[in-house]
User: What shape does this take?
Amino acid sequence: MNALTLFGLCGSALVGVGLYGLIVNPQPLRKILAFNMIGSGVFLLFGVVARRGAALGMGGDPVPQALVITGIVVAFSATALAVALLLRLHEATGSATLGATDGDGAPGV
Amino acid sequence: MSVAGAIFPAATTAGGFLLVLMLVLPVLAVLATLVLGGRHARTVAMLALPSGLVLAVMLGSELVQSGQALVYVLGGWAPPLGIALRADGLSAAMLVTTIVILLAVAVYGDGDFPMSAGARETRAPFMFWTLLLAVWGALNAVFLAGDLFTLYVALELLTFAGVPLVCLDGRPETLRAALRYLLFALFGSVLYMLGAVLLYGTYGTLDIALLAGLVRPVPAVVAAAALMTVGLLAKTALFPLHLWLPPAHAGAPAAASAVLSALVVKGSFFLVIRLWLDVMPGIITPLAGQLLAGLGGAAIIVGNVVALRQTRLKLLIAYSTVAQIGYLFLMFPLAAGLVAMNLPADPAVTGGLLQAISHATAKAAMFMGAGLIYATLGHDRIADLQGVGRQLPMTLLAFALGGISLVGLPPSGGFFAKWLLLTAALLTGQWWWVAMMVVGGLLTSCYVFVVVMRALVAVDGEKRPKMEIPRYREAVVLGLASVSFLLGLAALLPTDVVLIGRPVISAVGLP
Assistant: This one.
């Protein structure tokens, strides 16, 4: 197994663990962390793709690197927005859960 | 499949600068609201949105005149190294729809989010006008982007603009709805990005036109298609990933609900069209199309039945959105079926897009009408709507016209869209989708009928409205509903605008 395959498998494992966490954990904060974990896995895969595309004497394909930077910025803003919402929710209700007591909420369909 | 370069020239075409202006104008407007501060946000929006309408109409007429897609290659770097903006008939139709609805929402929202010189500055109006412009910019980017990564960024911008609209008034239940919406959206976006990695890793480009000529049904590409589709379904709220939609759309202020339900979910749906019909028409199997439409069919039944059981008007309209999203996905097996029979996929594509446009206009009018009813009565309980017909006649007419378009009676846009889809279903022998559309229409007519009949019941004596509604707000709701009602007349147009500059979909993507 070479380094590239190892990184690829690590990325896939991160995505898998993150997906599991996102779906199974009921607390929003844990879901946000799980989302970041999937994000890290995807960025690692981008790195693998960049390395595989190395040609013309360059260390790697530059396009995926540009995509990763954009992706990190987007994931960062998403996390910031989610945490801000969670803090406001905690301020307003004293709890940070998505609990079932929706005033206007949908019946459990 | 014909060579992609023949359809989309790799150089900037005439009118290409319009594409840039469509992106730059909203972004500049958002920046201007932030720089000029809260008091001027409304003024900026009221200046920028009408100019946007002029730009969108210019873009549309340029497209019709030239008869081919408009392209702008950024910085002169052709794909795959550079990035191209493209506008075909689908983009132009959605651009015009978006700006028309946003203008109507702006006129309507002026009543809810005023910014008079004397009043104290508050946060909600400022955020409303800024986010309205941000949604507009993000949607324009979705409709014009020529590669899958720009589409990803545009879709994220759309989510970031849409989520705060849900919790403009800051009540705990709306905060919760917004957070749930954001978590679903993040789930969707990360799956989409994973698909994009796989595609880039396989072909070394994310440009839509280039990918269309390259994709083959190898495992990595099939996995990418599945991941991206599921991610987009979460953002579009297709059953069974619709759970976030009703509380979010029903809890938001009426003007915001109109934008969210009419436009924001259409952004990710547009991306599904791009993905299935433009990027990988060759590798979509009939079974995949049936599966996607099967989810759509389940959405139609579940959404309509649950809508019938609602006691609050805004929740009813929100569940109706869940059902109507289902209709949008019926176009995919129909398009695939037509292509498999070597027929042009035009009726399915035009029908699907027209369904999106007529639902957008009708649903925006219905949500805004529900907002006026709430303001007048002080509640939106369906059981206590008596007397609304006397107090808000124009609004009730608008609600009924919107409902007619959702049901699909002639000459509404919904009728023409369903007619095209029914034609495609009969041509390809997929009778079960015909049955689904008829049953869905019947269920829809039930709840529209219930609401309108309740509201028409006369009450003894004069009920005092909680709040006087200015006539112009009713007029703009009625105007938008009329657009949806008369959209069926698009059948009389000499050319099918939607199909201009689109690649001919054929089944020969396979080697």
Remarks:
- Chain A has one domain: 3-93.
- Residues 3-93 of chain A form a domain with the Helix Hairpins fold (CATH 1.10.287.3510).
